Amino acid sequence: MMHTVNMPGSLGASVTATTLRLLAVSVLALGVTGCGHRVDGGETAALTQPLQTVEQRHPIEIEKAHTSMALVTPAAARGLNTYQKERVRHFVGLWRNEGAGKIEVAGNDRAALGDLRDILIEAGVPVGAVAITRYDANQPGVKVSFARYIAEGPKCGAWHENLAENPNNDFYGNFGCSAQHNMAAMIANPRDLKTPRDQTDWSSAARNDFVFRSWNGGGKTGGDTTEVVHDGNVSDVAKK
């Protein structure tokens, strides 16, 4: 059923309720259109622009880099000395944590290469993870290298904008840059930002369950201790 509303005025015209609704919608549409702003090309921009995230505005670049360590062995030496062996062990540990490929080995000293092979076997490095490369050096010695990921943070310090004038009420150009820069500098292994780690070194679920049940029941959660620790004495001198 159509309702008729008598509009007072000089015209004395009668307007239907449907016509009033159409007029209200038209006025509202004109008001919304007037709130838009002009952009290049004469097009009217939308009321709300999709804001970029901090990661999109200031991305962290992940690249591959080559890390190497060369050890020179004197002619009178018979292989690697104790200090050089410790350096190799530390380097193999870095490869385990950060390596993005095989560990490369090169050298022209037979005795040093033998020591290097023994260290790799001791560390449990599989044969398939070792690559023999060419050794380009005149001095006798060995060289160990591997590829790893490095994180390069964004360059910050863009303060050319006037923060007091922001008609769009969006993020300023330098917003979130320092947080991204610090994250790139502090992350232990940039490979974690590119791909998840291998899930082969999980801890024992049975052991975790045992420790949790022992802790929840008020029992011991550590391993067996010596009798001296149970007595609370550092040594047996105090007992005499």
Features:
single chain, 240 residues, alpha+beta, 60s Ribosomal Protein L30, Chain: A, four-stranded mixed β-sheet, two-stranded antiparallel sheet, 7 helices, disordered N terminus
Helix vs. strand class: alpha+beta
Identify the CATH class of the domain at 64-148: Alpha Beta
What fold name goes in the CATH topology slot of the domain at 64-148? Answer: 60s Ribosomal Protein L30, Chain: A
Distance between the termini: 110 Å
* Percentage of residues in helical conformation: 25-40%
Low-confidence stretches: 1-14, 30-48, 225-230
* Helix run count: 7
Largest sheet: 4 strands, mixed
The CATH level-2 architecture of the domain at 64-148 is identified as 2-Layer Sandwich
Oligomer: single chain
Radius of gyration: 36 Å
Estimate the strand proportion: 15-25%
The CATH superfamily name of the domain at 64-148 is: OmpA-like domain
User: Average pLDDT value?
Assistant: 75
Verbal overview:
The protein contains 7 helices and 6 strands. α3 packs across α4. The chain starts with a strand and ends in a 9-residue tail after the last helix. It has a domain of 85 residues: OmpA-like domain (60s Ribosomal Protein L30, Chain: A, 2-Layer Sandwich). It has a 4-stranded mixed β-sheet with strand order 3-6-4-5. Strands 1-2 form a two-stranded antiparallel sheet. The N terminus is likely disordered. α4 links the parallel β4 and β5. With 240 residues, the protein is an alpha+beta fold. It is 33% helix and 16% strand.
